[in-house]
Amino acid sequence: MSGASGPASGNDGGRPPKAPSSQGRPAKAPSSQGRPSKALSSRARTRLAAGTLLTPFFALFTVAMIVPVAYALWLSLFTEKQSGLGFDGPRTVFDGLGNYAAALGDQAFREGFWVLLGYCAFYIPLMGGGAIVLALLLDTALARARRFFQLALFLPHAIPGLIAALIWIYLYTPQLSPVVAAMEAGGIGFDFFSEGTLPSIVNIALWEWLGYNVVIFYAALQAVDRSLLEAATVDGAGNWRIAFSIKLPLIRSSLVMVLLFTIIGSLQLFTEPLILSRGSGSAVTSTWTPNMYAYSAAFERNDYGLAAAASVLIALVAAVLSFAVTRFTNRKEARP
Predict the structure, then answer these.
(1) What's this model's pTM, rounded to 2 decimal places?
(2) Residues 6+ apart with CB under 8 A from 131
(3) Which 8-state DSSP code applies to residue 89?
(4) How far apart are CA 96 and CA 74, in angstroms?
(5) pLDDT tens digits for range 70-94
(6) Cα separation values, 279 from 102, 112, 134, 167, 283, Å
(7) What is the pLDDT of residues 91-130, one digit of tens each?
(8) Are the beta carbons of 310 and 297 closer than 8 angstroms?
């Protein structure tokens, strides 16, 4: 009887014995060999989609930006000179940095940067300060009809700069403008085309771009966490303290971006003074700003090498100023 019960005695509860594994180790779970290939294919599809979407941008950027800049650099190294007695016409010769030396040595070109410096001294504080104040007013709970004021402030930006300059020339002309007539009736005499040239241009630029920057600041303020504002209000902070201690520090990146765009736009000042130079008795000359100097060199003197060199110098100044502003703001953010 014991022999009949022997095989079952090693069996726990009558269950069949487990199959012995090799070398006493438990059997490994089957490895999923398809997962790495699936991950690689997913990455490949992502890269392909990104490349497909970015290719049109890079193609347009190359055609519209890289190629013109490279052509301007190439053009700035050449100049036209008369051969012999001039009967054969001008011929293009390599001049190296001669055009750059000519532009920097021209007093009219250098004075254009002094004009831009005065323009920036008026324009940047008024633009930045006005846009910030208006955006803070729109962001407060006391503001009414926000959509109306946003549209009213942004609408001048939708008007092309050329049309805006023509409108303001009409408002500046003494024989036509109702504004000038009202000022003269009140005993205020002011010539917008001579001694008031710089304020007149600053006024046009503010009218065009103030609403655009207000929209940027207002959108950044809307992203501020409202719980922080509520906590500050509960702690007894007033509207001024909340605005300057909480809101403005939290939209610092937007402030820096607007400052950079404003500086670059100021260096490109062209349309407003060009239109204003057509007014009677205007103090604006054909070389009043560096951009106007390059335009005059190209289309009035037909000196395309000098115009290209002046354009490259303007771009270099804009790049240096942008780098300086970015470096300065990054250092301030890195401070504890």
Answers:
(1) 0.77
(2) 210, 213, 214, 216, 217, 258
(3) -
(4) 10
(5) 999 999 999 887 665 656 667 778 8
(6) 30, 20, 33, 12, 9
(7) 778 888 999 999 999 999 999 999 999 999 999 999 999 9
(8) yes
